[in-house]
Amino acid sequence: MNAKRMPVFLFLASTAVFTVLSANDVTTDAGAGRAALEKRCTGCHALDRDKEGPRLAGVLGRKAGSVAGFPYSDAVKKFAIVWIEALLDKWLTDPESVIPDSDMAFRLNNADDRAAIIAFLKGTGR
Predict the structure, then answer these.
(1) What single DSSP character describes residue 80?
(2) Which of 1, 36, 60, 91 has its CA 20 to 30 A from that of 79?
């Protein structure tokens, strides 16, 4: 191999290896997020239907209190926020600190579980 092309080849090879490893991490994270969601959230929530809590598919980027037909608390209905990752993380940690008087009593103290769930929900789209 030409000495001038060697750095380019090494860069491309290392990029390919990194891409494959990153793809595996995303798959693992999605699997971990789904598992954490099923363990921690499905008592009250589902992805595609309302239960005691509203459906979670597409929650990121959605206005709080906007799932049609779901009986939100007055506090959630009045609160004008759009769910972004940082806010959802804070909500899962301490719902009262985000929307006082909401009906969400559950707290998720495990930061790894919160991150995995949020990463998974990010991929559920609208």
Answers:
(1) -
(2) 36
